[in-house]
Amino acid sequence: MTPAARSARPAGVPPASRPAGLRPVWLAAGVAAVLVALVVGVSLGPVTLPPGSVAAELLNLLPGVHLDSGLSEREVAIVTELRLPRVVLGLLVGGMLALAGGCYQGVFRNPLADPYLLGVAAGAGLAVTAVIALGGVGTEGALTGLPVTIPLAAFVGSLGAVGMTYALGAAGGRGRSPAMLILAGVAVSAFLSAGQTYLLQRHSDSIQAVYSWLLGRLATAGWHDVLLVLPYAVLTTVVVLLHGRELDVLSVGDDEATSLGLHPQRSRYLLIAAASLGTAAAVSATGLIGFVGIIVPHTVRLLAGSSYRVILPLSLLFGAAFLALTDVVARTAAAPAEIPIGVVTALLGGPFFILVLRTARRVLT
Amino acid sequence: MSAAPAVQVRDLRVALGGTPILAGVDLTVAAGEWVTVIGPNGAGKSTLLRAVGGLLPAPGAVTLFGTPIAALRRRERARVVATVAQSPVVPAGMSVLDYVLLGRTPYIPALGRESATDLAVVHEVLERLDLGGFSRRELATLSGGERQRVFLARALAQGATLLLLDEPTSALDIGHQQEVLDLVDRLRGEHGLTVLATMHDLSIAGEYADRMVLLAAGRVVAAGTPREVLTERLLAEHYRASVRVVDGDHGPLVVPVRRTP
Predict the structure, then answer these.
(1) Predicted ipTM?
(2) Chain B residue with minimal CA distance to A251?
(3) Could you give the angle at which helices A223-242 and A84-107 cross, rounded to 10 degrees?
(4) Closest partner residue to A258 among B55, B82, B99, by Cβ?
(5) What SUPFAM superfamilies does this protein map onto (chain B) (predicted)?
């Protein structure tokens, strides 16, 4: 590198006068991705509906809009009662997982942080399994509606898990490496999964209910589930998005953040709680869906910028679109059978994780 | 400029994990002064700086411009004292402009965003430090000397009049060391800054400091002008170093001499 040669301002390029922030074009792209996912997700299925009509029917849901979509009454019911809640839930869950992933990456200053890898999802999983197995929920074979206790149990479980991972990962002291945290997350996940397996062994009558939930399916989603997840999702979104700038400050380290007047530990606890709440809501609705929290924020970072004021809102939007579209693949690739969506994201996420690992090698050593 | 000293440290004791690091340190830095803390590895130099910067709890021991540091709220403190760490974290992908803007954090309301004033201050600082052409560059791609200028720019953007520099030149070659320290000295004059630094290179330290403090095993063992502190006897005793001290134009020059076997 020759600093002298590169330091000169290239002719015609004005000095940057704007700080890093969300560019309108990216925001528009994110919203467009969500809308496309919405229309595609609702259109495709055992009965394929024309996307134009679906779009018209979706617009009809807005107050004051009356368009003629040309769909029969039965098809309208498919759109609004069967497919739409499923797609909306997919959007919510995807948005939450990606937002939580981006947030964890900032809070832990760790490119590998992800709700799945930190053990957060496993904690939520164990808690939900305990509620189903010990509470006798869903012993009839499948979970139809989502009991209110499940998101709460998932939240408690996820906070417990992230607390354990954090404490274990911090055991290395000041010189701890990012890899330490992930190893701690793996250990915590293994420990909690063992607990879950034990619970299932002892309560084999609820195995089917737990497994159909564990593998991450959106199949049984109804408006009930959407309404149950929505308040948590809104709360998480508001808290996390408001802290984008603080996460940027935290990225220079706790000492620097402190000397800049922040209270890093306080922000960290608040953001961990918010991200874990979002994760818990997602997990309780759809089971364990891995890697969304790592695929989406990294892609956003690569394409749109590394400020958390960019990563967080775009992760929310693109994460939503990503999961809704992944769900389309999950239910059409092997039609009429459905592949659990968690399997699809893991198939995509595994190789992607290796890629991140390779680029993050510098940070990890 | 206030009449109270910029920094007043009285009987500062810090123990980390049960091990005493500082065992009763007294230090006064007058406003506008440049004081450099020297001492062998593990003497507690960085710890002293961290305590003055508010990064360590030091109840009652540290007073900044007449106000006990514990009485300052975090944001208030950040407007009074800015720290440049020994090797600051360089976040991947962050531009020079965004990095320097972080210095405005104590002026930005919680959950708020930068105002036009903040941007104007940052652009002014960048121009002053000859970094205008770098503002869009990714910080990680800059050379060591350029980065050190950016770190200083961030501290200046903070608007603090007390600057704490922990080994500001340790990563630089000799030419860039002089460049950075000349810059700090110039800024000190222009902005009326007070500088408290730690340094390892004794000759360079002595040429820039008004006063020096020699720290050993958590205690101040000598303090005064560079000529009073940089003596063959003191350095032999506390660094266990064999040196010759020669008179230079701007202070004593410390030359290591190989021990005769």
Answers:
(1) 0.88
(2) B91
(3) 30
(4) B55
(5) P-loop containing nucleoside triphosphate hydrolases
CA distance A311 to A98: 10
More confidently predicted of A209 and B113: B113
Residues A99/A316, Cβ–Cβ less than 8 Å: yes
Distances (CA, A) of A66 to A40, A51, A56: 21, 17, 9
The answer to whether residue A33 sits within a structural domain is no
Kindly report the pTM of this predicted structure: 0.86
Q: Which of B74, B113, B143 sits opposite A263 (nearest CB)?
A: B74
**Residue from B94, B99, B176 to probe the interface with A (highest A Cβ count within 10 Å):** B94
Is residue B261 in a domain? no
Pairing of strands B7-16, B19-29: antiparallel
A71 in a domain, yes or no?
no
Instruction: Judge contact between A289 and A226, C-beta under 8 A.
Output: no
CA distance A129 to B213: 63
Residue B236 lies in a domain: yes
CATH of residue A158's domain is: 1.10.3470.10
For chain B, the domain total comes to: 1
**Model confidence pLDDT, tens digit, residues B208-228:** 999 999 999 999 999 999 999
Considering A56-60, A278-282, A292-296, A314-318, the range whose residues carry the highest mean pLDDT is A314-318
Interchain CB distance below 8 Å, A251 and B79: no
pLDDT digits (tens, 9 = 90+) for A197-218: 888 888 877 777 777 666 655 6
Q: Residue B205 is part of which domain span?
A: 7-256
| Residue contact A255–B132, C-beta within 8 A | no
Picking from A6, A256, A362 by the largest number of B CB atoms within 10 A of its own CB, the best residue to mutate is A256
* Beta bridge pairs of residue B29: B7
Shortest alpha-carbon distance between residue B192 and chain A (Å): 20
CA–CA separation, B55 and B164 (whole Å): 12
In a domain, B2, yes or no: no
Residue A199: give the domain boundaries: 89-364
What's the pLDDT tens digit per position in A210-264?
776 666 556 667 888 888 889 999 999 999 999 999 999 999 988 899 999 999 8
